[in-house]
Amino acid sequence: MADNSEPSKVAKALRKGALVRVNRAHYENSIEAKASDGSPPSYIFEGPGELIAIKGDYCQVRWRMPVPDVWLRMDQIESWS
């Protein structure tokens, strides 16, 4: 009997306009974290940021302060609550 244990895709409820924050556990030691400042600002983990674009596995997040927008992998963000 064939095992069809294909990894199920987790349906993310994140769409353009959603309020998000960065998941610290997924962000630390990632390529994006290594390419950035050694000590990330606390506001990215506290949120909220607004999801303004999605391209493939990446999304663009705009923070509610005068800082540049950032591109992060979708698995590094989560819904803000």
Summarize the structure.
With 81 residues, the chain is α+β, with helices and mostly antiparallel strands. The chain has helices at 24-27, 31-34, 43-46; strands at residues 19-22, 49-55, 58-63, 70-73, 77-79.
Describe this structure in words.
The chain has 81 residues and is of the alpha+beta class. It has one domain. It is 15% helix and 30% strand. The chain is built from three helices and five strands. The protein has helices at 24-27, 31-34, 43-46, and strands spanning 19-22, 49-55, 58-63, 70-73, 77-79. Strands 4-3-2-1-5 form a five-stranded antiparallel β-sheet. A hairpin with a 6-residue loop joins strand 3 (58-63) and strand 4 (70-73). The longest helix is centred in the first third of the chain and has 4 residues, at 24-27. The N and C termini lie far apart (44 Å). The model is unreliable at 5-11 (pLDDT under 50).
- Summed over residues and divided by their number, the pLDDT gives a mean of 84
Distance between the amino and carboxyl termini: 44 Å
> Residue ranges: pLDDT <50 for 5 or more in a row?
5-11
> Strand sequence of the main sheet, in spatial order?
4-3-2-1-5
In total, the number of strands is 5
Total number of helical segments?
3
Major pleated sheet: 5 strands, antiparallel
Count the domains.
1
Global shape:
globular
Structural class of the helices, strands and pairings? alpha+beta
- Whole-number radius of gyration? 14 Å
**Helical proportion?**
10-25%
Percentage beta strand:
25-35%
Q: What's the SSE pattern?
A: EHHHEEEE
